[in-house]
Design goal:
With about 120 residues, the protein is of the alpha+beta class. The protein has one domain: Beta Barrel (OB fold (Dihydrolipoamide Acetyltransferase, E2P)). Helices cover about 20% and strands about 35% of the residues. It has four helices and nine strands. The chain has a six-stranded antiparallel sheet. A hairpin with a 4-residue loop joins strand 1 and strand 2. It starts with 7 loop residues before the first strand and ends with a helix.
Length: about 120
């Protein structure tokens, strides 16, 4: 599977799409396959501050409950409310289904993330 080259990835299988000082965050195709059918997502409220590498929520599937980890630090400025009613969207369209948008506090943190090639090597 080819991973979108426009995104940066964590070793915990989240992706971030950085645009200026904003970062959209989701889970990778690999993550959704490992989880199985996603049935619930718990996300932070707008205004919450998250730190790189720390949990910002949980994702529940028929198999397990997993923590979601922030790829970069920042303040939550948007939450994808449609996931509350349709969490399975994360299975169907993992790269179109973002979970939160952050106002990124330190764009330099992105340098520690994996690019698409590195992420592909990690999960093969």
């Amino acid at each position: 599977m080819a991973y979108p080259s426009s995104l940066k990835y964590t070793k915990d299988h989240e992706w971030v799409d950085l645009s200026g000082d904003r970062g959209k965050i989701g889970i990778t195709d690999y993550a959704q396959k490992q989880l199985g059918d996603v049935v619930y997502v718990e996300l932070p409220d707008v205004g919450t501050t998250v730190k790189q590498g720390e949990s910002f929520g949980t994702i529940e599937s028929v198999k397990s409950v997993s923590e979601l980890y922030a790829p970069v630090s920042g303040q939550v400025v948007e939450v994808n409310g449609s996931l509350k009613d349709k969490p399975e969207t994360l299975n169907a369209k993992p790269y179109e289904s973002w979970m939160i948008v952050l106002q990124v506090s330190d764009p330099a943190e992105a340098a520690s993330l994996l690019d698409a090639t590195q992420y592909g090597e990690l999960v093969k």
